[in-house]
């Protein structure tokens, strides 16, 4: 059957926070990868609650994570949510929207740097695919929140290419927050993670299949 390595990088979503099993979308996506690609899937999960895009950039260059990039044929990245949350807290404190614009610019820069590190580590390696996880809005009643979630998603989508695609989770969660979010009203519950895995699935598996 052969084996493929899946590297899951990210924040609390990659860690599966909100799912009592701890599997989250990573475990569900692993099952789908196995079914579609007809390969054993070895998962390296590197998810940390509260991680910002800068944290992830610094993290993937460390000696315990960087060596995992080269062998990985599938990479998922959940980033940006904590950048947005931190900006929202600062804006709530002083009412200044520049926190959002600065956070958005920093997220764009850091995600670009993360992808550059991956490209360098993958040079000369077999085909691989990267899937970015789009942001949903846990505070749908806040108009400003909707605006900035969409801005962050536009930024992430700007990195898409033949090899890189973004899972569109915003629309899937919109109007379904009560059903898809955990008791903390921030992280997905098992049903929410199932929706995220489904959005990854619809992106296809090129160039691996």
TrEMBL record:
Top-level lineage group: Bacteria
Domain SGNH hydrolase-type esterase: 8-195
GO terms of molecular function: phosphatidylcholine lysophospholipase activity
InterPro entries linked to this entry: Ester_Hydrolysis_Enzymes (IPR051532), SGNH_hydro (IPR013830), SGNH_hydro_sf (IPR036514)
Gene3D superfamilies: SGNH hydrolase
Name of the protein in question: GDSL-type esterase/lipase family protein
Species annotation: Paenibacillus aurantius
Origin organism lineage: Bacteria, Bacillati, Bacillota, Bacilli, Bacillales
């Amino acid at each position: 059957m052969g084996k493929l390595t899946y590297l899951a990088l990210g924040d609390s979503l990659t860690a599966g926070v909100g799912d009592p099993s701890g599997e989250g979308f990573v475990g569900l996506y692993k099952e789908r990868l196995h079914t579609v690609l007809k390969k054993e899937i070895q998962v390296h999960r590197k998810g940390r609650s509260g991680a910002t895009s800068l944290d992830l950039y610094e993290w993937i260059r460390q000696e315990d994570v960087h060596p995992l990039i080269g062998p990985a044929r599938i990479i998922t990245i959940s980033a940006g949510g904590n950048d947005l949350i931190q900006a929202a807290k600062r804006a709530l404190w002083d009412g200044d929207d520049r926190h959002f614009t600065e956070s958005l610019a920093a997220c764009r820069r850091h995600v670009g740097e993360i992808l550059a590190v991956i490209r360098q580590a993958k040079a000369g390696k077999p085909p691989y695919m990267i899937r970015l996880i789009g942001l949903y809005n846990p505070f749908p009643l806040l108009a400003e929140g909707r605006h900035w979630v969409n801005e962050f998603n536009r930024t992430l989508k700007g990195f898409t290419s033949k090899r890189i695609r973004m899972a569109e989770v915003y629309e899937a969660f919109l109007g379904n927050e009560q059903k898809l979010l955990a008791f903390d009203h921030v992280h997905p519950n098992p049903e929410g993670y199932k929706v995220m895995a489904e959005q990854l699935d619809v992106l296809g598996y090129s160039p691996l299949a």
